[in-house]
Amino acid sequence: MSNRIEEIHTRLFDHFGAQHWWPGETPFEIMLGAVLTQNTSWRNVSMVIEGLRREGLLSFAALDALPLEALAEKIRPSGYYNQKAKRIKGLFAAIREDSGSLEEFFAQETQTLREKLLAIKGIGPETADSITLYAAAKPVFVVDAYTYRILLRHDLIAEDAGYEEIQDLFLSKLPAEAQLFNEYHALLVRLAKEYCKKSNPLCDSCPLQGF
């Protein structure tokens, strides 16, 4: 299994090259984007983030000071804006109460940080791990629908495999390096979008063809 997990990464990296993911200029922006991207496209998230940037609101202090209703209006293009505003406020409150600053919050040990994120209402494993990996630069592997689809089609997991089981495939078979996990996940996303599509996958020309 370890050879197969490593071989997938090698093939994808050889084919696509480095991806330099996640989109975002600062850890705060990346964290915010991880919540905003729930159930929407990154295009809509970018629209929100650029709007906040233009208004000088793209900071922890600025958004934390906004009333809930005002925040919801600012993030409306991301969809589910009332729910997401509550999640963002809950995240901010947890950071303030726990550490006082984003830098100190992210400085915690990987598993401690992940558990604290998961304890926040509306923050599930994928969002928590996206924040932990991409914003805090901690070595945890993000599992999403793309990861599930690719592994299932290559008989590496069962159809009923859960998040933790899939994640453990990577955590147990690869060096615990944030940059490696960052690139690997980004490569899987690109493969799923360009070849291993939900409908009409391009199997014959896929970089993993014959794998």
- The total number of structural domains is 2
Range of helix content: 55-70%
User: The CATH topology of the largest domain is what?
Assistant: Endonuclease III, domain 1
Class based on secondary structure composition and strand pairing:
mainly alpha
Low-confidence stretches: none
Name given to the CATH architecture of the largest domain: Orthogonal Bundle
How many distinct beta strands?
0
> What gyration radius follows from the Cα positions, in whole Å?
18 Å
Mean pLDDT figure: 96
Instruction: Tell me the overall shape.
Output: globular
Strand content: under 5%
Major sheet? none
- First CA to last CA: what distance? 13 Å
Report the CATH C-level class of the largest domain: Mainly Alpha
CATH superfamily label of the largest domain: Hypothetical protein, domain 2
Q: Tell me the series of helices and strands, N- to C-terminal.
A: HHHHHHHHHHHH
Helical segment count = 12
